[in-house]
Design goal:
By secondary structure, this protein is α/β, with parallel strands linked by helices. The chain has a single domain (about 5-240), classed as Ribonuclease Z/Hydroxyacylglutathione hydrolase-like (Metallo-beta-lactamase, Chain A). Helix content is about 35%, strand content about 25%. The protein has helices at about 35-45, 60, 65-70, 150-160, 175-185, 190-205, 215-220, 220-225, 230-240, and strands spanning about 5-10, 15-20, 25-30, 50-55, 75-80, 90-95, 100, 105-110, 120-125, 130, 135, 140, 165-170, 210. The strands form three sheets. It has a six-stranded mixed β-sheet with strand order 1-2-3-4-5-6, with helices on one face. Helix 4 (about 150-160) crosses helix 9 and helix 5 (about 175-185) runs antiparallel to helix 6. The chain binds zinc ion. Zinc ion (ZN) binds next to loops.
Length: about 240
């Protein structure tokens, strides 16, 4: 049986994710901005949260850590680079220290740029990557702490993920990202086609996340940027958009 993944919408546009590994019954929550929503989502399913997984230190990804930990006694897992900025951290992970989760495992991809310690949890067997605020559907995170060089390198790492990998990001930003992408590259038919689907989903308040890496490679302007210079230009334009 595969990893069970439940999307938990929080705040205005944040996504946390409940993960249940069926063999062990372990349950993780990825990037909980708050505690109540994730605790209820787990309780509704009769699941007990055993782990919090953080991709980076921002409050809208870690704000629920301490309350969930005190309610459940769970283990908080986060990037070793940012251990001092992850509330309640118990287990530090890095590219050299993957995350074992019952019968499965997440490889850690170090993808700095949005923050200096940002990581992705990549469940290779399950074809699922939790990328926080580094890669968005048709977008990428702002460079709050890192440089364009760092973020471009992180994009190149993520581009190596297989096309059928589901990309679970931290926010529902796809409509805005896609409109920006269409303006940047009006002749790109793949973006137009994808946006038809995005408009239809958002009209019904349905999520556009996760997406597949294969479609990101064709439609995400930050993955399409051929070099650091063009990446930095696109990022600067998006900052002013
Ligand atoms: Zn963030």
């Amino acid at each position: 049986m595969a990893l069970e993944i439940v999307q938990v919408p929080l705040l205005t546009d944040n996504y946390a994710y409940l993960l249940r590994e069926p063999k062990s019954g372990l349950v993780g929550i990825v990037d909980p901005s708050v505690a109540a929503g994730p605790l209820k989502a787990a309780e509704d399913r009769g699941w007990a949260i055993s782990h919090v997984l953080n991709t980076h230190h921002h409050w809208d990804h870690t704000g629920g850590n301490l309350e969930i930990k005190s309610a459940t006694g769970c283990t908080v897992v986060g990037p070793s680079y940012d251990a001092d900025r992850i509330p309640g951290i118990d287990q530090e992970v890095s590219e050299d220290a993957p995350f074992k989760f019952g019968a499965t495992e997440a490889e850690i991809i170090f993808i700095p740029g949005h923050t200096l310690g940002h990581i992705a949890f990549w469940f290779r067997k399950e074809k699922a990557a939790f990328v926080g605020d580094t890669l968005f559907a048709m977008g990428c995170g702002r460079l709050f702490e890192g440089t364009p060089e760092m973020m471009f390198a992180s994009m190149q790492k993520l581009k190596k993920l297989p096309d059928d990998t589901k990309i679970y990001c931290g926010h529902e930003y796809t409509l805005n990202n896609g409109e920006f992408a269409m303006g940047l590259d009006p002749g790109n038919a793949a973006i137009k086609e994808r946006m038809d689907d995005v408009y239809a989903r958002r009209a019904e308040s349905l999520p556009t996340v996760p997406s597949f890496m294969g479609e990101e490679k064709k439609t995400n302007p930050f993955l399409l940027a051929p070099d650091v210079k063009s990446f930095a230009e696109v990022r600067a334009k998006k900052d002013r958009y």
